Prior knowledge:
A: alpha/beta, 9 helices, 10 strands, B: 8 helices
Amino acid sequence: MAVFEAKNIQKSFGKTEVLKGVSFEIEKGEVLCVIGSSGSGKTTLLRCVNFLETPDKGQFFLNGNLLFDASDKTAKTDAEIRQKRLHFGLVFQSFNLFPQYTALQNVSLAPLLLAKERPDYKENKNRIKEEILQHSSELLVKVGLSDKMGNYPCQISGGQQQRVAIARALALKPDMLCFDEPTSALDPEITVEVLSVMKELAAEDMTMLVVTHEMGFAREVSDKVIFMDDGIIAEQGNAEAVFGNPKSKRLQEFLSVMK
Amino acid sequence: MGFWEVTLSLLGGLEYTCLIFALTLVLALPLGLVIAFGSMSKFKPLAYVVKTFVWIIRGVPLMLQVIIFFYVPGFLLGTPILSRFASVIAAFVINYACYFSEIYRGGIESIPRGQYEAGQVLGMTKTQVFFKVILMQVVKRILAPMSNEVITLVKDTALARVIMIVEVIQAAQNFAGYGLMWPLFYTAVFYLAFVGILTILFGYFEKKLDYYKI
C-alpha cells in the first residue's frame, strides 16, 4: 500500500492554473523524483503536500487514510493543519536555517517545542530534553557534521547548511521527506556532499519526494520519476523508462537541454 | 547662586527627565508591537484604522499632543482627568509607540518568508514561530533605528515643560528669572552624558547580537 497518495491535485493562483490535476503515489521506502522545467508546477506541488499552499481540488491519502480533501470546506484549525504537516519533512532550496541558533539548536528546536505538549513532559522534563538533544546530535553525525554542532549557520558552508537542514527535517521522524531543489543554490562541488547524504537516506529506505534538476541523481536514485509539464504529469515511470526511453516530445526536448 | 546649588536643582529636574524617559520606553515598546500587528492585520478595516491613527499621531507635533492630553479632557468634562505628569506620559507613550510600530513593521516585514515556512513545516505554532524564530532576527535588524528613536526620546522629554513639568530645561529656565543664563547652557552636559550612556549601551547590545548574521 502506498505511504502517500495525491489524487487529482489542482491549484490556481488568481487566473493562473499552476496544477491541473496531478495524481501520484509513493510506496514506503521509495524515492520519487519530480523533474520538469521552471514554472511546470513542481515546487507548488511540493508546497501543497506540505500544506504551505492549500490545493483547490483533490485529496491526499496517508497510509490509505484520507489526510486532506479540498472539497471539505469546514474550516481547519491551525492545530489540525500542524498535525498533518508533521507527517512530512521539507528541505528548502534556500536552506532557511534559523540564523540565531547553532546547528544543534536548529535541529532540536522543533522537537523540544513539540515535547512540551506531551502529557508526561513535566514529570520527565530532563530525560525528554536529553533524549531529544541526543537524537539531534546523532542526526548531525549522520549527515557528517559531528564537528559543526556548535556552529552558527553563518559560520558553515552552503552544503553544510543544507545538511543541517536535512537533519532538522529528519528530527521529527516524518513519514516522508520532501526536497525542493535542495542543491540549486549550491555550486557543483558542494552539490555532491548533499546528494551523497540524500543517497544514504535513500539506501536506508527513507521515503523521499524530491524535486530536482540533478538528472544524474534522479536517474541513479529514483524508484520512480515524474516529468511535469505545464501543471500536469506529462510522463512517469521508473528511472530507466523516463531517462532511457522518453516517449513524449516535450520530455525528449527537456532531457536534451538538461544534459 | 553657586554652581552646586544649580547642579542640585538641575538634578532634581533630571529626575523627571529620567522618569518620563523610562516610563515611555517601558510602555511604548510593547504597545508599539501591538500597533505594528494592527497595521499589518489581514483584517483590512483594522489595518486602515490603525494606519490612520499612526498618521495622526505622527503628523501632529508632540508638544501639541502633550497640551491636548492635559487640557482637552478638562474642556470636555469640565474637570481635568489626568495630572500633568500622567498627561505627559500618556502623550509620550502613544506618540513613541506609533514611531516604534513602524520600526517593528519594517523589521518584521524584512524577515524572509522562508523563515516562517521553515518554522511551520516543523510543526511550530504561529506564536512559536514568531517568538522563537522571528523576534530575535527582528531585534537585530531594528537595533540601529531604535537607538535613533530612543536618543530622540531623551531630548523630547524637554517638551514636558510646556505644561509646567519641571524637567532639566525648565529647572534651568527658572534661574533665568534671577538673571542667570548659564544653567540653561549647562543642561547640555546632562543630555550629553545621558545620550553617551545610551550610545555605549546600544553598542554593547549590537556586539551581543554579533554572533550571527541574518
